[in-house]
Specification:
The protein has a domain of 259 residues: Amidase signature (AS) domain (Amidase signature (AS) enzymes, Alpha-Beta Complex), CATH 3.90.1300. The chain has 18 helices and 13 strands. Strands 1-3-2-6-8-7-12-13-11-9-10 form an eleven-stranded mixed beta sheet, sandwiched between helices. It has a two-stranded antiparallel ribbon with strand order 4-5. Helix 13 packs across helix 15.
Length: 518
């Protein structure tokens, strides 16, 4: 009870101190979309400086409670002034898109500026990256303002299984802005928290398995997990290049698509982008923001084992999704119901070998990243383990441990033929993918599959198949905790997924601002 009273006092203080601040003009920044902001720029109702000042003020007020931001860019206002000057003299590319729009980046995405890139760990504090990450280069080219780094489950949730989602040494425990005691989900928790609570216009997250889709679902935002290689991973602290991907987390589908358009494409520092570039449509992804995008789409509904209607919360979700399914039908979609992915029991039981493969791939990928740093306190996984062991009290990790790091180091020294083991595992993933999602879609002539609520089963399927997925806000349970609906498809199916997600969002308009309930 004492903790609840304290939280109420904190929230009351935030409200009384002007936490719902508006700009001096009639324009309200809260919940504003990129289109709203660009129109306000054009009509001289808003400047990028005012926008950045609003977010910096809001971060100062709310971040001590939410822990969604690790650090802000000390040059953010300078960059905002630069954007305003460019707009004033009509510099080419200074109108529309992401120009002058502040963005938060998950703290495993490198920036060659005054910001740190640490994966939430003190082990990398003070390290110096050789260059901006590939996606950051593209964001800067688009005129976006790098506002700061969002928090994450430390080391993208790959240090330990023991820490709660959203916890990292540098910023502490991230809180869900809808219900503070609920999970924000990981590992891109801070990106979800921050855009949900209007600490930034838009954000970037990363996903290896569920790390964009899950926090998007739990924080009532839109998350796009792109086809692996569609966005560059160069300069991103890796887990496994075979599954890692970078994607937007925003309050609306249109905002997420604007960000996606800015970051996709070939990067000479990431070989996977060459092959994936074939999936990028001429004219980009914005053309698929069709409010009637559901018309004629064949959607496969995956009910089992995606939610359980046996309790009150499950029943409420069940009723919500039945209503959504009716909405999909009314909007012209054809629903193919009660489908099941082949070998789903194997996937559910964790017998697909994904963790073993990731453990084997993690050490060489991380060591390569660390070795390329201009300066760093650590240069190998072994050095990171030693640092954590020595300074665990300094990191304030409450001894959450680093068993995944230790397993990766142990396996690298004790499996005699890692390449052969990996080849066998990847072959298994390929078979599960072809006989699973790909066969299901082909046999039923589907445009996408639909999973009610977040599901680790679907995240496994999307992860091992390198497939894209989009999570869109779908509702709130009896406690006020958000949940999403996820649309997934084969590689390169982003255009269809965007049409479906945008059509669903337009028809339902589920998302509402957070309530900050204790």
């Amino acid at each position: 009870m004492a903790n609840n009273s304290l939280l109420f006092l904190i929230l009351a203080f935030l409200l009384l101190s002007g936490f719902f601040t508006k700009t001096s003009s009639a324009f309200s920044i809260e919940e504003a979309t990129i289109d709203d902001l660009q129109l306000a720029f054009k009509q001289n109702q808003l400047t990028s400086r005012q926008l950045v000042e609003f977010y910096l003020k809001r971060i100062r007020r709310l971040n001590p409670l939410l822990r969604g931001v690790i650090e802000v860019n000390p040059d953010a206002l300078f960059l905002a002034d630069k954007a305003d000057r460019e707009r004033k003299v009509n510099t080419p590319g200074s109108t529309g898109g992401l120009h002058g729009i502040p963005i938060l980046l998950k703290d495993n995405i490198a920036t060659k500026d005054k910001l740190n890139t640490t994966a939430g760990s003190y082990a990398l504090l003070g390290s110096v990256v050789p260059r901006d990450a590939g996606v950051v280069m593209k964001l800067r080219k688009a005129g976006a303002i790098i506002l700061g780094k969002s928090s994450l489950s430390e080391w993208a949730n790959f240090r330990t299984d023991g820490a709660p989602s959203g916890f990292c040494g540098r910023s502490g425990q991230g809180k869900n802005p809808y219900v503070l005691s609920a999970t924000p989900c990981g590992s891109s928790s801070g990106s979800g928290i921050s855009v949900a609570a209007n600490l930034a216009a838009v954000s970037l997250g990363t996903e290896t398995d569920g790390s964009i889709i899950c926090p998007s679902s739990y924080n009532s935002v839109v998350g796009i997990k792109p086809t692996v290689g569609l966005t560059s991973r160069a300069g991103v602290i890796p887990i496994t290049p075979r599954q890692d991907t970078v994607g937007p987390m925003c309050r609306t589908v249109s905002d997420a698509v604007y960000v996606l358009d800015a970051i996709v494409g070939f990067d000479s520092n990431d070989a996977a982008t060459r092959e994936a570039a074939k999936y990028i449509p001429n004219g980009g992804y914005r053309q698929f923001l069709n409010p009637l995008g559901l018309k004629g789409k064949r959607l496969g509904i995956l009910r089992t084992p995606f939610y359980n209607s046996g309790n009150d919360k499950g029943s409420r979700r069940h009723q919500t999704f039945e209503h959504h399914f009716q909405t999909l039908r009314r909007q012209g979609a054809v629903l193919v119901d009660h489908l099941q992915i082949s070998d789903v029991d194997t996937i559910t039981a964790g017998q697909n070998g994904e963790l073993l493969a990731t453990l084997l791939e993690f050490k060489p990928a991380l060591n390569e990243y660390l070795e390329q740093l201009v300066a760093s306190p650590v240069r190998s996984l072994a050095a990171v383990i030693a640092f954590n062991k020595k300074f665990s009290r300094l990191e304030k990790t409450k001894e959450y441990g680093q068993e995944l790091f230790k397993k990766a180091e142990f396996l690298s020294r004790n499996i005699t033929n890692i390449d052969a083991t990996l080849k066998k595992l990847v072959s298994t993933f390929s078979k599960l993918s072809k006989n699973g999602l790909e066969k299901l879609i082909k046999t039923n002539k589907l445009d996408a599959v639909v999973a009610p609520d977040f599901s680790y089963v679907l995240s496994f399927v999307l992860a091992i198949g390198q497939y894209p997925g989009i999570s869109v806000p779908a509702g709130y349970d009896s406690d006020g905790v958000p949940f999403g609906i996820c649309f997934g498809g084969p590689k390169g199916s982003e255009p269809k997924l965007i049409e479906i997600a945008y059509g669903f969002e337009t028809a339902t308009k589920v998302r509402r601002p957070p309530a900050f309930k204790p």
